[in-house]
């Protein structure tokens, strides 16, 4: 029997929970199962029926207000007026595919390329992060002449055939590609050596050697620079650089999956990879760039992209369509004009400080880590053993949802790390709601 997926099943509604649901919720879950099939998953033992969102808040069908501490897709806040207006205006004028000329895609690209290192000077657009990573893998293979891709042990990079084959977080029911190799997560909380960067680079080199032994030519290393599915691995700043140097020394390329850490999320920089002082060969992005509108992107060095684009035409029917580009333009403008990178850094630090103070009251908090408004809150049985406490973590997120109307979820191979990743609209005054809820919840569940 296949093991459960760490990102799909750890915090999910299951059939055995159905008996406890109210009549309306039970009817909706039954209908979903009937018409949508069984691959989909819902969060929580008692699924949330949402009907409205504004900024960092959500409302359910009963009118209850929630604090969203998980949704990075609505990156600058649910239903942001600037995005709503931009999409509405463009939708009234034109929305069609990208084989006609249109200014939006060019104007947006000009602005977006200003945010990346100068070596990266080409852009392509898709509709999802999966498509962006899929294309990145194809480009890596054309450029290197190899097929081997290295990812971290709990990585998630998409749902296409290529990307699911590089996404161990999907579980053993979804087999990895024979050309995929895994490296352990760079877990600074449990690392006991002298230099995490040296250790992680050695892990990369070891897998390249294994590929060579098996007759697989190395193509590239694909990583989310904050290792979110691995449990949020943010520090020390700069540890990733030595690994990227190893990748390049072995003829491969580094693909920075910025779907989650990009667009001001980590506060220290506009892009997550920039915290480590590296220049990727390819950057991939996803729906946060359009605040939830289906849009994604791939930014690349010209010489890397040319290995693919000089040989193979690429067409994504609605990738970069005028409406999606209008949404993306609005998001980028809001991030810059509202100084959301600085906001993420400042408010994120205040939140981490408050969460760290909770460690004095709760022995079950093993670690608080992260950057900007991207925080890992790790729960353990005790700090001496550092043993993951998955049961407590799952009970915590259920109590947060049911009693305190706070929405979040878990990450990491053991499902014991709360992934606190609110929309960038999250404000300093929301800290009391979140931290107070966590304090009360941990007090109740560990009494």
From TrEMBL:
Key words, A-Z = Pyridoxal phosphate
One of the record's GO molecular function terms: transaminase activity
Name its co-factor(s): pyridoxal 5'-phosphate
Q: Does the keyword Nucleus apply?
A: no
Q: Which PROSITE patterns match?
A: AA_TRANSFER_CLASS_3
Q: Note whether Zinc occurs among the keywords.
A: no
Q: Please give the family membership noted in the entry.
A: Belongs to the class-III pyridoxal-phosphate-dependent aminotransferase family.
Q: What is this protein called?
A: 4-aminobutyrate aminotransferase
Q: Which organism is it from?
A: Acinetobacter apis
């Amino acid at each position: 029997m296949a093991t459960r997926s760490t990102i799909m099943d750890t915090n999910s509604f299951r059939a055995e929970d159905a008996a406890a649901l109210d009549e309306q919720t039970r009817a909706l879950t039954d209908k979903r199962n009937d018409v949508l099939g069984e691959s989909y998953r819902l969060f929580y033992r008692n699924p949330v029926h949402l009907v409205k969102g504004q900024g960092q808040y959500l409302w359910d069908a009963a009118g209850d207000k929630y604090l969203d501490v998980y949704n990075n897709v609505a990156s600058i806040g649910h239903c942001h007026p600037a995005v709503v207006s931009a999409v509405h205006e463009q939708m009234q004028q034109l929305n069609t595919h990208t084989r006609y000329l249109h200014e939006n895609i060019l104007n947006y690209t000009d602005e977006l390329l200003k945010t990346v290192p100068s070596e990266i000077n080409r852009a392509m657009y898709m509709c999802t992060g999966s498509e962006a990573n899929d294309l990145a893998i194809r480009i890596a293979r054309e450029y290197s002449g190899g097929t081997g891709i290295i990812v971290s042990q709990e990585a998630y990079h998409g749902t296409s055939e290529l990307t699911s084959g590089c996404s161990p977080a999907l579980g053993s029911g979804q087999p990895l590609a024979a050309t995929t190799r895994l490296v352990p997560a760079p877990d600074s909380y449990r690392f006991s050596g002298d230099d995490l960067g040296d250790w992680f680079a050695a892990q990369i080199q070891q897998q390249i050697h294994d590929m060579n032994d098996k007759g697989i030519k190395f193509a590239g290393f694909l990583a989310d620079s904050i290792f979110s599915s691995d449990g949020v691995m943010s520090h020390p700043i700069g540890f990733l650089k030595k690994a990227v140097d190893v990748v390049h020394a072995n003829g491969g390329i580094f693909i920075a999956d910025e779907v989650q850490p990009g667009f001001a999320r980590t506060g220290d920089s506009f892009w997550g990879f920039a915290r480590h002082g590296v220049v990727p060969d390819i950057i991939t992005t996803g729906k946060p760039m359009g605040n939830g509108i289906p849009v994604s992107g791939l930014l690349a060095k010209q010489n890397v992209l040319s290995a693919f684009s000089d040989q193979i035409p690429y067409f994504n029917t609605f990738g970069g369509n005028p409406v999606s580009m209008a949404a993306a333009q609005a998001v980028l403008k809001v991030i810059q004009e509202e100084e959301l990178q600085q906001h993420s850094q400042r408010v994120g630090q205040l939140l981490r400080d408050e969460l760290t103070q909770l460690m004095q009251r709760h022995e079950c908090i093993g670690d608080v880590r992260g950057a900007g408004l991207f925080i890992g809150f790790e729960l353990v049985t005790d700090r001496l053993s550092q043993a993951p406490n998955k049961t407590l973590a799952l009970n915590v997120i259920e109590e947060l949802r049911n009693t305190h109307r706070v929405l979040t979820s878990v990450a990491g191979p053991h499902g014991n790390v709360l992934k606190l990743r609110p929309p960038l609209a999250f404000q300093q005054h929301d800290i009391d709601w979140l931290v107070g809820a966590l304090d009360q919840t941990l007090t109740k569940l560990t009494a």
